[in-house]
Amino acid sequence: MKYTRISINTATPAEARSRVMIIYTGGTFGMTYDESGVLIPFDFSLIKEQLPALRNLFLEITVVSFTKPIDSSNISPEHWKAIGEIIFENYQAQDGFVVLHGTDTMAFTASAISFMLPNLAKPVIFTGAQLPISQPRSDARENLITSLEIASAKQDGRPLVPEVCIYFDYQLLRGNRSKKVESMHFDAFESGNYPVLAKAGVKIDYNLAAISTPSTGTLRLLSTFDSSVAILKLFPGISPQMVDAVLNTEGVKAVIVETYGSGNAPTAPWFVHSLKAAVGRGLILLNVSQCPGGMVEQGRYETSKTLADIGVISGGDITLEAAVTKLMLLLAEFGSEETRARIGVSLAGEMA
Ligand code: ASP
Questions:
Q1: Which residue has the least CA distance to atom 3 on ligand 1?
Q2: What is the best residue among 66, 100, 104 to mutate for testing ligand 1's pocket, by most ligand atoms within 8 Å of CB?
Q3: Which of 14, 121, 295, 301 is least surrounded by Cβ atoms within 10 Å, i.e. has the fewest?
Q4: Which ligand 1 atom sits closest to the C-alpha of 26?
Q5: Which of 210, 243, 277 is the last residue of a domain?
Q6: Three-state secondary structure call for residue 61
Q7: What is the pLDDT of residue 13?
Q8: Residue-level pLDDT at 181
């Protein structure tokens, strides 16, 4: 992947308070209109003109921009690898990172990055915007300024938020607990199963009890993904052919069964037999709820007890986004056997 690197010192002539790297991947945030009225990616070397308030942050900012910024609907594990490598290679030189990313798949990328960097002890704050920075009513300015403030915030010389987060619309959320829930209003993200890590108002109120404690180990980078993962979303009336088509997809190693409520599914014999046969063939079946809040509890109802009996693994309170990326990373790193043992254990605070 090709990058462009731009250095911006917003502190001169004073000394910078902190060093933050912005990784610009694309999305609505950086769009601007050219003379003919066409939306084109924004030139980051002009950020100080667009955002004069940056000067008050007294930061030394390095921008690493994808040479071809992309709509996040085109994000793939290759891009996760690139973002992870940029963070890993620049980790010692920076106090924190802000990743500018389209909102559509931001929760997937934030989840992936949280699993790729064991022992992370510095902030990696994902943000974006619902309206381009070139628009007068854009949310891009506030989202970026506060993300930079959070990425550079320290207490007793240590980073205040040593984890991968999403900052959006005055709320800081754990990245691998987040979901995009809104496409027209500014409150695009929610983390139904984990408290908000900070709220930005007149000042930024950090929820210190919910923020993870920094790791003392050495940062590592895991950057391979195995995409042999499928999703089987249940709905009343789903046909045996549909279920079998997903479970028999060539090459698939793990299937997330998106169930109802606290992990419930039909008890019809054909359905149970299909799932049982898939487990028998060595497939990993992970039960993840369609509900954005609450958790899978296999055995609470008769309609979920059967799943436990045939070897479906409970996803607990994990999000679909975290489940997909965690499975891909574990499969690549450890293979199917180990993945089965590790999928239910929290890696980076993504599940209780
Ligand atoms: N389609 C855009 C993207 O995800 C939407 C956004 O940036 O909010 O890249």
A1: 102
A2: 104
A3: 14
A4: 9
A5: 210
A6: strand
A7: 67
A8: 97
Q: Which of 180, 210, 240 is the last residue before a domain boundary?
A: 210
Domain count, the chain: 2
Per-residue H/E/C for 89-136: HHCCCCCEEEEECCCCCHHHHHHHHHHHCCCCCCCEEEECCCCCCCCC
Ligand 1: which of 29, 42, 73, 133 to mutate, judged by most atoms within 8 Å of the beta carbon? 73
Cα–Cα distance for residue pair 124/193, rounded to 1 Å = 20
Residue 53's pLDDT is what?
84
| pLDDT for the residue 94 | 97
Atom number in ligand 1 closest to CA 183: 8
Q: Is 142 in the pocket of ligand 1 (CB under 6 A)?
A: no
**Residue 216 placed within a domain:** no
By annotation, the residues acting in catalysis are 28
Domain match, 14 and 140 both: yes
Mean pLDDT in each 10-residue stretch from start to end of the chain (352 residues)?
83 82 92 78 74 86 90 96 98 97 98 98 97 90 97 95 98 98 96 98 97 94 98 98 98 98 97 98 98 95 93 98 98 98 97 97
State phi, psi for 126 to the nearest 5 degrees.
-85, 140
For residue 130, the ligand 1 atom closest to its alpha carbon is 8
37 dihedral zone (left: phi>0; alpha: psi -120 to 50; beta): left
CA 188 to ligand 1: nearest atom: 8
**CATH code of residue 292:** 3.40.50.40
Distance 179 CA to ligand 1 centre (A): 14
CA 288 to ligand 1 center in whole angstroms = 25
d(CA 210, CA 72): 28
Is there a single domain that holds both residue 200 and residue 244?
no
**69 touches ligand 1 (CB under 6 Å):** no
- By residue range, what is the domain housing residue 249? 229-342
CA of 4 to the centre of ligand 1 (A): 21
220 occurs within a structural domain? no
